[in-house]
Amino acid sequence: MVLDIILPVFGLVLFGYLAARFGLFKEQHIAGLANFCFTFAVPVLLFSSLSGARLPKEIDWGFMLSFYIGGLATFFVGMFIGRRFFGLRIDGQALMGMTSAFSNTALLGIPLIIATLGKDASLAVFMLISVHSAVYFSLVTVLVSFRNGSGAGIAAQVGAVLKDLATNPILIGLVCGMAVSLTGITLPHVITTMASQLGSAGVPASAFAMGATLSQYRIAGSLPQAGIMVLLKQIMHPLLVWLLAHYVFGVTGIWLGAAVLMAAMPTGINVYVFAARYGGDAVPATSTAILVSTALSVVTMALVSTLLGLT
Known about the structure:
Blueprint: H1 2-21, H2 27-51, H3 62-86, H4 90-101, H5 105-117, H6 122-130, H7 132-148, H8 154-166, H9 169-183, H10 189-199, H11 202-214, H12 223-248, H13 253-263, H14 270-278, H15 283-307
């Protein structure tokens, strides 16, 4: 059953949340584990998966278009609602749009999609997240710059985003795994064994770290705004992606599953970082949306997986 795949992952998220909430896992431990996952375990998991994968002869590019057209449409709907109904300025609108469309790819998306679809989905995951941060980080940076009246600083800020991407351990792991797969290099047994052992920690450690990190957030206010962002993220985003993929681009199989599942992920924690940096008044609603969307995503993921026939 689908729940047999999804519930253990979310069980680990809950375990991490409770451990941190009751002081059994301290704040410094959370930072260390999250850093271990982001810097080592998840990159090596993706490297190990991709380096041994057989790449398809043809890539269904429609799944990329479906994911990003659906995501950007959700983003701008969030912006419109923020302006029309909450009177937000351009920076607040941008953050509301990002909260509505930016998926939790690293700590939740990668382990859940690989657990659900298997290692054959590694290429699809790679393609989706390779530009995910670049698209949304750059867009929000540019929009926020309008509010700050700092047009001259846009290029520098976008350059900083691109630099962060170039040094992102997850993307490095993906690129290295892809390179090994494309070149057909046979790695020494000791390397593949080490990668397999370290990568096996990626899914459970990431899920636990996700839960522990969420314990630091609170349902702090602006519930109507947060509720709308959760609805956009958990319903509109995956629904749009599915409609585009299925009816417009004819995407099927693992490509369809990866695109819709990634769209159904809750709001990524990086959105909170942007909110705290660029708009303090957006922090409470963003924090609430992250918590609520993550809690509801167990239902969303089960529903999406069942509808797509992913057993």
